[in-house]
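Re: [ENG-882] Designed sequences occasionally contain unexpected residues at chain ends

Forwarding the minimal case from QA. C-alpha cells:
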C-alpha cells in the first residue's frame, strides 16, 4: 500500500495514515540484507529527561542541524495539507502530487538525505539529537528500501483509501474567512485530478500484477459506490462551507455556498462516478484471487522488508510466526484460568459461545454502546494522574464511526485532534451491527484507543518542544501500537476490568494481537487461506465473528502492519518488569511512563537503549 500517498493526503491529524512512507525508486532490494541499526551506538542513546549531555562533536551537530532543516523543508514542500495549516491558502486548495515524476524526485532526494545521515556519527550528537537521528534514520532507510516496490500501485486497503480523504479533509476543515472558504472550494475542484493520479497508478498495478486481492477490491468498490451517492457526497463536502462564521457578509456566504455546490456537482460527483466505474468495470475483474502479498511479483522480498519496517527490528517472517505461536499458547492458559474463576461450567468453546450469544453482553442501541464507552473513558480519565506525571492539554471525545465507513471499519479507532484548529481527539466507536459489539471488550478497546493509549501518547508527542517537526509528526507503528496494547494491560492496574468477562475480553484482545503475528505471516508468507486465518481468532478468542472477518480482511489488505502491536508491547512490558525488579520499592510508575513517552515515537532499539539508560541512572541514584 502506498503509505506516502496516505500520509500526505490531508489529515495531519490521522496518525494512522502517517505510519509509513516509501522511498527511492531505483534497483531491486536485497531481501536478505537487514537495514542498518537505527542507532549507531545504542548505549549512548538517551531521552530528553536524562542527565546533561557529555561533550559533543560540533561539526557533527552542525551537519545534523543542516540536514534536519533541509529535510523538514523538503517534507513541507511535499505536504500541501501542512502548508495549508500554516496559512498558505494556495496549498490549502491542493492535494499532494503523486505523479511518477513527483515521487521519483522525492525518492531521489530521500536517498541523498540518507547518505548524508549515514555520514554523521550519532554518538557524537547531543542526547536529544541522538533520538532524532534514530527516528530520521528509520524514516529515510525504509522509504529508500520500500521505494523499488512502487507501492503507489495499491492505493487502498479494506477500510481506507484515497477516496475517503476528501471526507476526512472536510471533517477537519474549519474555514473562518472568505479566502479560506475559496481554498476549500479549490480543493473540491482538485479531487478529480487527484483521483486520476491514483487511477493511473492502479492501472499500472494491473499491468504489472501488483494489485489488492479481489475480495479487498470488492470492498473498495462498494465503499466508493456509497460515497458516490449525490446526497451523501454533497452532505460531506458542503459541511465546511455550511460552518462559515455567520459574521461574514451574507452575500459572500451565499456566493461561496453556490460555488461549492457547483464544484461538488460539476467536479467531485463526476470524479467519484468515474472512479466507481473504473473499480467496478476495469480494476475488479483483473485483480488476483490469491490473498498473500507474496504472490505478486517480488512479493516475498517486499513482505520481508515490511516485516522489518513495521516491527523496526532485524527479524524475519518465520521468527515472528513462532513468536506469535508462543504468545497464543501463553494467553490461552491465562484464559482458561479466568474461565475457572467465573465458575462457568462447560468447555472453552462453550464459554466463547456463551459470550458471543448471551444478550446481557450487548447494547441494544447505538446510544447505549456510546454511553458505556464514555463511562469507561471517564473512569480511565479519573485514574490518569496516578499513573502519569505529565498529561497533555488536548481533550478527546467519544464519537460514532461515520455511517459511510462503519460496515467495513474496525470496531474502534482513534482519530487525532489538532489544538491549533480547535479539534479534539476522537475515540471512534463502531455502532454498526450491535450484535457484533460485545460490551466485555469495551474496557480494553477504550484503554487502547483513548487513554492511556493513543490519545495520551499521540497528544504528548504533538506537544513536544525543542525537537524537529518530524519528531512530533512521525508515528512508528511498533511504538504507537505497542503502547496501545500495553495500555490495555495498564488498564488492569487502573481497575477498569470489573468482572471475569471483562478480563476475558482483555485477554481476547491480547490474543487478537498474538494471532495477528501468526495470521499476517501465515497469509502473506506461508500461503494460508482466509478460513485458516479466521480460525486462530474464532478458536482462541471471544471476538465477534463480524469483527474477526473485518480484521482478517484488514490484514490481507495491509501486509505487515498487524505485526507491530505485539512486538512493541512485549518490549514495553519487559522494560517495566526489569525496572520494577531492579528499582524495587523506589520504582515510580509515573516516572517510568513519562520517560517512556517523553521523546515521542521511535524505533524499538532506540526505546530499549533509552529506557535501560534511565533504569541504570535511577538504580545508581538510589545507591548514592
Amino acid at each position: 500500500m502506498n503509505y506516502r500517498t496516505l500520509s500526505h493526503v490531508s489529515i495531519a491529524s490521522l496518525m494512522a495514515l502517517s505510519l509509513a512512507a516509501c522511498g527511492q525508486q531505483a534497483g531491486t532490494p536485497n531481501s536478505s540484507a537487514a537495514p542498518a541499526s537505527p542507532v549507531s551506538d545504542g548505549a549512548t542513546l538517551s531521552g530528553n529527561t536524562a542527565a546533561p549531555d557529555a561533550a559533543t562533536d560540533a561539526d557533527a551537530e552542525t551537519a545534523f542541524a543542516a540536514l534536519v532543516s533541509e529535510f523538514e523543508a523538503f517534507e513541507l514542500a511535499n505536504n500541501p495539507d501542512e502548508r495549508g495549516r500554516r496559512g498558505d491558502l494556495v496549498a490549502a486548495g491542493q492535494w499532494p502530487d503523486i505523479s511518477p515524476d513527483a515521487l521519483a524526485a522525492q525518492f531521489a532526494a530521500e536517498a541523498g538525505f540518507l547518505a548524508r545521515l549515514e555520514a554523521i556519527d550519532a554518538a557524537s550528537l547531543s542526547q536529544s539529537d541522538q533520538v532524532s537521528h534514530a527516528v530520521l534514520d528509520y524514516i529515510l532507510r525504509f522509504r529508500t528500501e520500500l521505494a523499488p516496490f512502487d507501492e503507489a500501485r495499491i492505493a487502498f486497503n479494506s477500510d481506507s483509501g484515497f477516496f475517503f480523504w476528501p471526507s476526512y479533509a472536510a471533517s477537519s476543515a474549519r474555514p473562518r474567512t472568505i479566502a479560506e472558504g475559496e481554498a476549500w472550494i479549490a480543493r473540491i475542484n482538485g479531487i478529480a485530478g487527484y483521483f486520476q493520479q491514483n487511477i493511473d497508478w492502479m492501472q499500472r498495478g494491473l499491468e504489472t500484477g501488483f494489485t489488492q486481492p479481489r475480495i479487498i477490491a470488492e470492498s473498495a468498490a462498494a465503499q466508493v459506490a456509497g460515497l458516490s451517492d449525490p446526497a451523501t457526497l454533497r452532505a460531506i463536502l458542503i459541511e465546511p462551507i455550511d460552518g462559515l462564521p455567520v459574521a461574514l457578509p451574507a452575500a459572500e456566504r451565499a456566493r461561496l455556498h453556490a460555488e461549492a455546490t457547483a464544484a461538488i456537482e460539476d467536479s467531485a460527483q463526476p470524479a467519484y462516478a468515474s472512479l466507481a466505474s473504473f473499480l467496478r468495470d476495469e480494476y475488479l475483474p483483473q485483480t488476483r484471487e490469491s490473498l498473500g502479498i507474496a504472490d505478486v511479483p517480488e512479493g516475498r522480498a517486499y513482505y520481508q522488508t515490511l516485516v522489518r519496517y513495521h516491527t523496526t527490528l532485524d527479524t524475519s517472517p518465520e521468527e515472528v510466526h513462532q513468536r506469535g505461536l508462543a504468545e497464543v499458547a501463553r494467553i490461552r492458559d491465562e484464559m482458561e484460568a479466568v474461565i475457572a474463576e467465573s465458575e462457568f461450567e462447560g468447555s472453552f468453546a462453550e464459554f466463547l459461545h456463551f459470550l458471543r450469544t448471551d444478550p446481557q453482553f450487548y447494547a441494544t442501541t447505538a446510544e447505549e454502546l456510546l454511553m458505556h464507552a464514555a463511562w469507561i473513558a471517564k473512569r480511565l480519565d479519573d485514574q490518569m494522574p496516578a499513573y502519569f506525571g505529565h498529561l497533555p492539554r488536548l481533550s478527546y471525545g467519544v464519537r460514532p464511526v461515520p455511517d459511510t465507513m462503519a460496515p467495513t471499519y474496525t470496531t474502534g479507532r482513534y482519530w487525532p485532534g489538532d489544538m491549533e484548529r480547535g479539534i479534539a481527539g476522537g475515540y471512534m466507536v463502531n455502532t454498526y451491527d450491535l450484535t457484533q459489539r460485545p460490551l466485555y471488550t469495551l474496557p480494553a478497546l477504550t484503554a487502547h484507543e483513548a487513554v492511556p493509549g493513543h490519545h495520551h501518547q499521540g497528544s504528548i508527542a504533538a506537544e513536544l518542544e525543542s525537537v524537529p517537526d518530524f519528531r512530533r509528526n512521525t508515528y512508528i507503528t511498533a511504538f504507537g501500537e505497542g503502547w496501545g496494547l500495553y495500555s490495555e494491560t495498564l488498564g488492569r492496574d487502573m481497575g477498569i476490568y470489573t468482572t471475569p468477562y471483562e478480563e476475558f475480553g482483555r485477554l481476547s484482545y491480547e490474543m487478537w494481537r498474538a494471532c495477528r503475528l501468526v495470521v499476517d505471516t501465515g497469509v502473506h508468507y506461508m500461503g494460508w487461506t482466509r478460513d485458516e486465518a479466521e480460525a486462530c481468532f474464532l478458536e482462541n478468542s471471544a471476538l465477534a465473528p463480524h469483527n474477526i472477518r473485518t480484521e482478517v480482511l484488514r490484514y490481507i489488505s495491509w501486509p505487515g502492519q498487524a505485526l507491530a502491536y505485539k512486538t512493541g508491547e512485549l518490549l514495553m512490558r519487559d522494560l517495566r518488569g526489569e525496572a520494577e525488579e531492579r528499582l524495587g520499592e523506589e520504582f515510580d510508575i509515573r516516572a517510568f511512563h513519562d520517560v517512556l513517552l517523553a521523546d515521542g515515537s521511535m524505533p524499538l532499539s532506540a526505546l530499549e537503549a533509552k529506557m535501560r539508560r534511565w533504569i541504570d541512572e535511577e538504580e545508581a541514584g538510589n545507591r548514592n
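QA comment: On inspection the terminal residues look reasonable. The chain is about 60% helix and 0% strand. Proposing we downgrade this to a documentation issue.
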